[in-house]
Amino acid sequence: MDITSLSGISSEYLKVYADSRKLTETKDESFGSIFSSMMNSLEETNALQNKAQSEEIRFAMGESENTHDLLIAESKANIALQYTAAVRDKLIEGYRELMQMSV
Question: Are residues 49 and 77 in contact, defined by beta-carbon separation less than 8 angstroms?
Answer without folding.
Answer: yes
